[in-house]
Write a structure and sequence with these properties.
It contains 18 helices and 12 strands. The protein is α/β, with parallel strands linked by helices. Helix 1 crosses helix 6, helix 8 runs parallel beside helix 9 and helix 16 packs across helix 18. The protein is elongated and about 85 Å long.
Length: about 375
């Protein structure tokens, strides 16, 4: 790790992004020399102004590196530079790859077969179910799911990938010492056990608003394509879609109701040329043939006999893939609410229906 200390240090200097970092290393040969040359030589590099040169020369190198290396060691984080063989090959091909990655967990060769799944932080029931279904189907086929650990679609995508027995990678807009959102601390541990959590930001970097559009290029860059499930007209997910297009990656979108504000962004993407997706196969069809050959075969659906009788069959027939309120089910069944409630509990226990907030029910 000490051999990478100057790589880490240069990444910590204020005002140095991935493009500036690349210019400096290309000009001087390595990060260590960047810190040793006079200010005048720094300013001879294209794009390096006095403010940036001053930030480099005033950087408390020994102190900052010591503290950062301690944080890295205590947290069990691995550092990958862009020169390392383990650095994701797909990221090396984008315009502005992060010079270093903080990694907790493992990144393996098969993670090159990956799809980003992103969307609204407050999805509808439809968005939640679609995310679960497609993320799990892709995971079962051996596709790694990439997302951003945010609330909503991101979290559901990660959880569904794990439930599908596959791998998932979360790209953070903060340092790996910072869990954001805080309620995802358990999910973060699960992701580490089934893939990796990564960031280009120093260990204790806060989740500043400006970090998230920046990290989105990594989400799309790690993936063969990006699926947007639900997105409003000004959603941050559309930034990721733009990155994907610029990087030569596929863009996929889930169609939504014309009356839903959370589908306006995705519907607009489809009108602009994104592929409309109804299932995992719509995504897999766009993979190169050599990639498809590595995927697992889809599991055949196994029909089970749940031994539903009488009113159970009747109630189950009234529930479909559109969420339905219990009052509607009671009204259509012509049964007492107590009977309907009891049957719904039984159907939930059998895994046939799911209940959402507001006494809304849907088929699993």
């Amino acid at each position: 790790m000490k051999n990478k200390s100057f790589w880490i240090a240069l990444n910590m200097v204020d005002g140095i992004g991935s493009i500036t970092y690349q210019k400096l290393v290309t000009h001087f040969g390595n990060p260590e020399k960047v810190f040793s040359v006079p200010k005048k030589e720094l300013m001879e590099v294209d794009g390096i102004r006095e403010k940036t040169a001053n930030s480099i020369k005033s950087f408390r190198l020994e102190e900052e590196i010591k503290d950062e290396l301690n944080r890295i060691e205590k947290t069990g984080v691995n550092i990958l530079t862009i020169n390392d063989n383990e650095y994701p090959s797909s990221l090396k091909t984008i315009y502005d790859p992060p010079p270093i990655l903080y990694v907790k967990g493992t990144i393996i060769e098969n993670d090159t077969i990956a799809v980003a799944v992103i969307g609204s932080r407050s999805p509808t029931t439809y968005g939640k179910l679609v995310t679960e279904k497609i993320s799990m189907e892709l995971s079962e086929r051996g596709v790694t799911i990439i997302s951003g650990l945010a609330r909503g679609i991101d979290s559901i995508a990660h959880k569904s990938a794990i439930a599908g027995g596959g791998r998932t990678i979360a790209v953070l807009g903060c340092g790996l010492n910072v869990i954001y959102p805080p309620e995802n601390f358990k999910l973060m541990d699960e992701i580490i056990s089934h893939g990796a959590v990564i960031s280009e930001f120093p260990m204790s970097a806060r989740p500043d608003k400006m970090n998230f559009p920046q990290r989105n290029r990594i989400i799309s860059g790690l993936s063969l394509g990006t699926l947007i499930v639900e997105a409003a007209e000004k959603s941050g997910s559309l930034i990721t879609a733009r990155h994907a297009i610029e990087q030569g990656r596929e863009v996929f979108a889930i169609p939504g109701s014309i009356n839903s504000p959370k589908s306006r962004g995705t519907n607009r993407l489809i009108k602009s040329g994104a592929k409309l997706v109804e299932g995992a196969e719509d995504i897999i069809d766009e993979f190169p043939s050599d990639v498809r050959s590595f995927l697992k075969s889809p599991e055949k659906e196994i029909k089970e006999d749940y031994n539903l009788v009488g009113d159970e069959k009747h109630i189950f027939s009234l529930i479909d893939t559109e969420s339905r309120h219990i009052d509607t089910i009671v009204e259509q069944s012509n049964l007492p609410v107590s009977v309907v409630s009891g049957i719904l509990v039984k159907l939930e226990l059998k895994g046939l229906v799911r209940q959402f907030s507001g006494k809304m029910f849907i088929r699993s």
